[in-house]
Design brief:
By secondary structure, the chain is of the alpha+beta class. The chain has four domains: 19-87 and 273-384, no CATH class; 98-171; 179-239; 398-465, Arc Repressor Mutant, subunit A, CATH 1.10.10.60. It has 21 helices and eleven strands. The strands form four sheets. The protein has a four-stranded mixed beta sheet. A three-stranded antiparallel beta sheet has the order 1-7-2.
């Protein structure tokens, strides 16, 4: 509880501007557009700037708040933001991608019968799921994060209760904390039958024996025939060990339109990055409401209430406009750092040119926190002259070759998959043998590293890949 209390105090020290900026950083372009429209509807102090208005001329609706006191120590400036530049004829594409795994779950959450508190917790849990659908974070650290980021004090008991609700969502198996729980969640929703019940019993009580293919032990302990066991195993192997990877054409035809947040062009040997505006309006402060604030010095109660209301709206507008400006600058700096780091790839479009890169590399180049880089990268896309990519695509760990050259783990994983694809299935390659294969190709990789990458690729151990 002490740790949660400290984190709660930390959260309370965040200024309204910081909170606003953090929320806006995560939004891709189309969601930002909707967020700005919502703010324009709810705050009469905010206006759209018309085309051609100059933020520096001091006229029109722009207003300086230098005469107003503020508790957050944000320097005064003309409250006007030009979000994305004068890209009136944007040369970029709107493209469709299949609905993402996390978006699908958030959609289902909207239709669930959970109360508002549980929905906030559930949304945080969904955001913590790995792309394959598993929750691999321990619940104690998850509770700490929810307290710090959402201001909700919770505990493991409540988290388990909410998680159980998420585990009722489609696809079956989502939200599992390990493979056994994932398969059990799926088998429980299948049509009832004697074979299904036997499969569930094996998964629940004899999972270790099943994974090690100790079939004689299972038959002996359950007093079943080889035919019955075979039927149960056939039922189990039809289950999906990676429910998060199921959001594809066979699962859903829902698609969303994605607007690239960045446009990268290769002109005359130079990489030129821009941030297309799309329908994100420029913003300004409504001078009429600023004047009202200055004139509301009346001593009557109604006048003071009006002044308080307008002051609140002005502060809110100020924070929002500044947060939009900071978002733009942060995205711009981060994307330029990524382009600089991965220059060879962006010039040629060759995956083998991708350098190993983690969030820390870009954080150091931009002097930003790793958490900030993570928010920028989340759900953002860049259009290049050779395709459209999510920013997460460019991040991977690295290893050293025998010649001292650093290579991406993506490259190592590709070689592992290729080696396993062509192996003799009657004598599949063990992890030690895969280490030898990689060494022959010049990659210094430990056996435990090979095992880790193989597991990340959802490739079973050699004994389970063996075919008769």
């Amino acid at each position: 509880m002490l740790k949660q209390g400290l984190q709660q105090k930390l959260q309370q020290k965040l200024s309204p501007l910081q909170i606003q900026t953090i929320k806006l950083l995560e939004l891709p372009t189309m969601e930002l557009e909707q967020r700005i429209k919502k703010e324009l509807e709810e705050n009469p102090v905010l206006d759209e700037a018309s085309d051609g208005e100059d933020s520096d001329d001091g006229s029109g609706g722009n207003v300086s708040l230098s005469d107003y006191t503020s508790d957050d120590q944000i320097p005064s400036y003309k409250l006007y933001t030009n979000n994305q530049g004068k890209d009136l004829k944007p040369q970029y594409s709107i493209f469709s991608v299949k609905e993402s795994f996390h978006q699908n779950l958030i959609g289902q959450l909207g239709y669930s019968q959970m109360d508002s508190r549980s929905k906030l917790i559930a949304a945080f849990i969904i955001g913590s799921l790995d792309d394959d659908g598993y929750l691999r974070r321990d619940l104690e650290s998850l509770a700490d994060d929810i307290a710090f980021r959402q201001g909700i004090e919770t505990n493991e008991k409540e988290l388990v209760k909410v998680l159980k609700k998420i585990q009722e969502f489609e696809p079956a198996g989502v939200g599992a904390r390990d493979l056994q729980e994932c398969l059990l969640l799926q088998i429980k929703v299948r049509e009832p039958s004697a074979t299904r019940e036997l499969a569930e019993l094996i998964l629940a009580d004899h999972f270790t024996e099943f994974t090690k293919k100790h079939y004689q032990k299972i038959m002996s302990r359950l007093s079943i025939t080889e035919e019955e066991l075979k039927g149960a195993i056939d039922e189990i192997i039809r289950l999906n060990p990676r429910p998060g990877g199921q959001i594809d054409d066979s699962y859903t035809e829902q698609a969303q339109q994605v607007v690239p947040d960045f446009l990268l062009e290769y002109k005359d040997g130079e990489l030129v990055m821009t941030m297309p505006r799309f329908n994100v309006p420029e913003l300004k402060i409504n001078k009429r409401y600023a004047d009202l604030l200055m004139k509301s010095a009346a001593s009557d109660k109604a006048g003071k209430e009006a002044a308080t209301f307008v002051k609140q709206k002005l502060d809110s507008a100020k924070w929002f406009v500044e947060a939009i400006r900071q978002r733009h600058n942060t995205l711009n700096n981060t994307m330029n750092a990524i382009i600089d780091f991965q220059r060879e790839f962006f010039v040629e479009g060759d995956e083998n040119k991708l350098r190993p890169m983690v969030l820390k590399n870009i954080a150091e180049k931009t002097n930003l926190d790793i958490s900030t880089i993570s928010r920028v990268v989340n759900c953002k896309y860049i259009q290049t002259h050779f395709g459209i990519y999510p920013l997460k695509y460019f991040f991977s760990e690295g290893l050293m070759t025998e010649s001292g050259e650093e290579v991406s783990t993506r490259e190592i994983k590709n070689i592992l998959m290729e080696s396993i694809d062509v192996e003799d299935k009657k004598k599949p390659l063990t992890d030690e043998e895969l280490v030898s294969v990689l060494h022959e190709k010049g990659y210094k990789v430990a056996r435990r590293t090979v095992a880790k990458y193989r597991e990340q690729l959802n490739i079973p151990i050699a004994r389970l890949r063996k075919e008769l």
